[in-house]
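Attaching the record inline, Q. Sequence:
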Amino acid sequence: MTGKLKKLLALKPSNFVTLVEIWLKLLLAWASFSCLPQSTASRIWFGRDERAVEEKEDLTSSPEKEVVINQIVTLLKIAVSHHIVKLTCLHRVLVLKNMMEKYSIAASIVIGVQKKENALAAHAWLQVGNDIVADKKSYTDQFKPLDDQSSISLMLLDGQKKS
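Structure, as predicted:
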């Protein structure tokens, strides 16, 4: 038996069920953005009411919340490593946020951009409070968050100069 299969079989039944749920949600996220118009896929994944999670009472204490977050991240990494489709950071972040909502953990998706030569590169990551989840701060620091109006203005101005 291979090492990966042994690790899967060693999971608790509840973790295995969560792993399957994450794997299926990753497939759904990929299918949404691959098969539907982008506006429809965005409405499905981003159109939910953010206040619904914020208004819920956070039932998890800080240490308990950290355990739940770490467990979800670990299961997500396993699901990604066993997936049949090529997943992007956006697919992973959408599923992570969805799973955080399930456990009443308020999380925010951050999308950042960076200029590489004559092109823009983008990356999506998840934050719980000020903590970056399932990503390295050293990597996310290379990107300017899109909600930062000054970076958007600078990119637009820079793009106009080169036209």
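The helical segments are 3-9, 13-35, 38-46, 51-55, 62-81, 89-102, 137-140, 149-162. The longest strand covers residues 119-128.

More tomorrow.
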